[in-house]
Amino acid sequence: MKHMNSEVKEERTSNKKRIDLFLVPIVLIAAFLNLFKIWTDEYANAYYTAAVKSMLQSLHNFFYASFDPGGYVTIDKPPVVFWIQTISAKIFGFHGWSVILPQALAGFGSVLLLYVLVKRTFGVWAGRFAALAMALTPIVPAVSRTNNIDSMLVFTLLVATWMLFRAVRTAKFGWVLAAFAMIGVAFNMKMLQAYMVLPAFYIFYVVATKINWKKKIAFLTTATALMLAVSVSWAVVVDSTSADKRPYMGSSQTNSVLELAFGYNGINRLTGNTSVTGSSHKQSAQTEQQTASSETKQNSNSSADSSQSSNQRKSSSSQKMQAPGGGNQNGMFNTGNPGPFRLFQKGLSDQISWLLPFVIFSIVGLFAGVKFKGPYTTKQKESLFWLAWLLPVAIFFSIAGFFHQYYLIMLAPPIAAFAGAGAVALWSMYKQHNGWKSWLLPGGILTTAALQVYIMSPYVSSIGVAPIAGVGALGVILALVLAVRKQRKNSLTNYLGAAAMVVLLAMPAYWAMTPIIYGGNSMLPSAGPDSSSGMGGPPSTATNSKQSGFNGMQPPGSSSGNSSSNNQMQPPSGSSNGGQMPGGSSNNGQMQPPSGSSNSGEMQMPGGSSNNSQMPNSSSSKSSSSKRKSGGMNAEVNKKLLNYLTKNNTGEKYLFATTDSTSAAPYIIKTGEPVMAMGGFSGSDPILTVSKLKAMIKKGEVKYFYLSGMGKGGQSDVITWIKENSKEIPSSKWQSTSSSVQQGPSGNGALYEITLK
Q1: 531-560 tens-digit pLDDT
Q2: What is the pTM (predicted TM-score) of this model?
Q3: Are the C-beta atoms of residues 98 and 88 closer than 8 Å to each other?
């Protein structure tokens, strides 16, 4: 106990010391990568931004995280992060940057937290290097620069980690409760993903605390019960509320938060069986990838320079890289094929794996000589914690069937921690000529440089040969020189070791900057020279410099007289599966309809038109706009449609109804008016029935319906009834022909009016 108290006193004394000057540039780098130019993203991920707009309008919408101001359906995640975003928008005003700001600060804060966590046990240089590795892990700033949840989730889990470490140092049960309660808060950010760190928490507490087994079991049982109570608190309240007094729980099939948590946002992510509850989840995946694909061109057109650099540098042939052990590296959302080498495949490796070989060598060094029965040093105990975080998460991403590239941020803290702690440990072993362990440093440098060359190889047409050759050559030379000079102790050897670390971080640093250089994708964020695509592959090269959107797809109600045989949907450049989207099949490179589409032979986007519909050209003024109207949704509303709907509204609650969130989000963001996404995010949630819709129309809640080819799923009967019992509004009254309309994924549809007495 005296030892515990002395540690606390030591911590308080260290806190009074002056600022670590070496940390200052690391902090500035992290601030730059996470915050610079976030103000250029006007909409961010429009699906979530629309929810913030709705949540600002009432406490009812705020509590339930309603997607629309009318409280019809929620978004597909729990509310805590969106509560924070809404508070930010309330304070700073409703902007794209104000909803991104909390995540950007969380990404920045995670760097500082990791410094604090690693420094205390492994030393100040370990803390510095860990913080720098975290800041330069490409997927970290890529996600933090959006309004997606994951950077806030990781920050919260690191806060929980700090509490757990403090609980062990101080032997105070209150900190244990706080740590597990914080995981419960994280559950209300992204559900079961928060529980991925639980093995680390349990193992570390059991190994590190010096109390008897009865107390350990009692404390962990109590803390776990508190965590579960916090986790399900919001879900229990929502599921206990009558369905007619709250929004429908988006992306669930039974209108239940718990079903969403353990189904769509839980087990289905592991199994990849996205159609467990019907075709809806499969269609949701299709919708998500398709809308993100359209954003490839929207973002690349945000400035002339970005467009040229993104579209002219790449060819699809560079994307057919083989994974170690064979196999094409495609998979849904470019997450590769399941297997032990998945994290080294293209699309994942350049997001997270730059330092993995060095981490493996570090783990070997840190655990060398450890006996199973102990005793364990503090360094070994905390190394065990980071290993118990790293391995289960790495295994999950190696076998999971359905996830996105940006989920990999969950691996960033343990990788960065091991990079920092390992750099110091391996250097110490090297300098002390500690037998075979002295070879771990040059071995780690050599294998890490080799992997980085492998990671960069598919991008040779974008980044050139020089950086690839430079990293490879310098890595080999420095590793060999360090091996040769192993018996010498002088300042030159120190400089060589520092130079090796710089070489290993150079390309991750460049990759981390790509969302700033090339533009990011707010719906499916990723890093790399193709970061604006969010698909792990380069944007397609446009045949017309004025063309934008995904091969010219349009927002609701926009049209053009330009038709061409070249307007058939093409796969994103770099696809290695023959141009297939999830659920589709290839046919000479033309996109085929997803399963369940009613339009045979014609590919339709969410809320969009078929591949033979007319495609407009966008104006150069929009292409060069300094504001990125991104988010995987329609970046502009159709003003003519909006004017028609506003003028003819006779007191209806909803401005109009549409199949899915893709068409609804921009109108909610721009106007703040209720727009009904009848089938939720993907258009396939079984929310409406014909009888329920009849009742809504009779009560005067809605009379206009914008329908397009996608988003039927579980609402086919409703859409059929709408078409049979309505009058179609002539397109001349509401359809825009202006070529200056910002293009998006929705395309042409039809507007219907229904009035029942």
Answers
A1: 766 544 433 333 333 333 333 334 455 444
A2: 0.82
A3: yes
